[in-house]
Amino acid sequence: MKQFFKFMFASMLGFIISGVVLFFILIGAIAGLASKGDKEEVKVETNSILKLNLNYAIPERTTSNVFKNFNFQTFESKNDAGLDDILANIKKAAADENVKGIYLEMGINMNSFATVEEIRNELIAFKKSKKFIVAYGELADQKSYYLCSVADKVFLNPAGELVLNGLSSSVMYLKNMFTKIGVEPELIRHGKFKSAGEPLIADKMSDANREQISSYMGSLYHTMVNGIAAARKKQVTEVENIVNQLLIQHPQDAVELGLADGLKYNDEVETELKKLIGNDDKLNFVSMNKYAKVTNTNISTSENKIAIIYCNGEIVSGESSDDNMGSETIANAIKKVRLDDNYKAIVLRINSPGGSAMASDVIWREVILAKKVKPVIVSMASVAASGGYYIAAPADVIVAEPNTITGSIGVFGLMVNAKELLNNKLGINVETVKMGEYADLGSIDRALTPAERAIIQKGVDRIYDEFITKVAEGRKLKKAQVDSIAQGRVWAATDAKKIGLVDEFGGLDKALEIAKNKAKLGDYRTVSFPELKDPIQSLFEDMSGQASVFLTKQSLTPEQFKLFTDFNKLMHYRGVQARMSFDVNVQ
Length: 587
Fold this sequence. Notes:
Blueprint: H1 2-39, E1 48-53, E2 70-71, E3 76-77, H2 83-95, E4 99-105, H3 113-126, E5 132-140, H4 142-148, E6 153-162, H5 175-181, E7 184-190, H6 198-201, H7 207-231, H8 236-244, H9 251-256, E8 262-263, H10 266-277, E9 284-287, H11 288-291, E10 305-312, E11 314-316, E12 324-326, H12 327-338, E13 343-352, E14 354-356, H13 357-371, E15 376-385, H14 387-390, E16 397-400, E17 405-407, E18 411-417, H15 419-425, H16 450-475, H17 479-485, E19 490-492, H18 493-498, E20 504-505, H19 508-518, E21 525-529, H20 535-555, H21 558-571, E22 577-579
Parallel strand pairs: 1-4, 1-9, 4-5, 5-6, 6-8, 10-13, 10-21, 11-12, 13-15, 15-16, 15-17, 16-20
Antiparallel strand pairs: 2-3, 7-18, 14-22, 17-19
């Protein structure tokens, strides 16, 4: 027996040591990946073609966290370019004499219409360089085709597919499911359009929610159809008819209807590209990730700086993470720039559905203070709604893409009554002793009393009143006017501009141009905040969370995982929320 334990403990010790060694090998491998990118030099050959494959979820900024997309099977990190690098590289390629054109790979584009719009506009600007853009794909969905429609030539695989069938938005209602398991979510809100939480307390869509979805989806649809029509030199009614009648059911239909320029296999497209660069021997493709490592000789070294502060993700108290905008992190970044005279203006790049009302107010205060000493311009990305609009409202100018989702000026509180689940499903009985009538306010083992609901409603109404007051002050509108367009209603920026919530259409470049003019600058350079974390620091900070997400994701389908994460967010809300519906899913 003694010999058995001896060998058992020796094996355990060996296992532990091996685990530690493997852990440090992993750290070393990731550290090597992190440093390799900085040291690698990429030289672009003459007659090169920049290849863009944008069929992934594009983040606002290229992450420095190599663990974010790390593949444990191949020990490789697929660090896809963020929107910031994509736009910068297209701009850089326009001035690079070694780059003769861009090759766009069509496919399934999982990004928002606003993200697609910003890249599309940069491609249109690229065409001013008189260089070519060629698009090709085996399968193209609507967002991918909308992006690639600006190409000089659009080719489809002879056996491929182009999907143009209009837009739809689906919301999953969970009331009956909660009833079956004995859970009753209790929603206290202000704003008849405030749909965040509605799927938890209803079994069908409210008329108000249907109205707002139809409105903003209609704006997105018309922007897409008008853009395709302009790019392909067709009448808007022609494109609408193609979509409404589903006239593209075969690749040849796209050619005959003028939305594609030919059906070709990959080798035939390569032959076309060789003709365009005047080289029959080979093609020199350079990927986006590699081209990002090419030195940009057009970067300014001016002492005048404009700060781009990225406000990305749900708004929470404390520090930011990869997916959340922490009020402490963002407020400190604004304060740092505000106190530094070398920064002449601030551009807040907001991509957020909102979140904690309190955390939003902390950021709002710093925006107010910054605006007193230097221009503050907002650049709205895919979504800047509810709390995202709360922090945008004081800015001097608000810039958005026509298909940015914004508004949702409203607030709500969420409680959960799980008495039925605890008592009758699980056999759990909760007994409470309290000192103070409201000491157990919010307990999950009982419903709210009418008095408690009134107290919470009063708090929600107060925060809503503060919200519309601050929007009215920031936008120089009457409070009653803001109330009439608020009520939690979500708007596409095309409509938001008409009612005074947005000033200009455009992307980050437009916001920077306005900031430059407001600050009366000639030459300037940009500096991005918050500073990206060291890759190894990010690895240690995120390892447990990323591992948990990874394991959960592996056990669920993509649709189940999306539902799980949305529901998990709602169940973890604390305090009154200035947040839009947990998902605007337009396909």
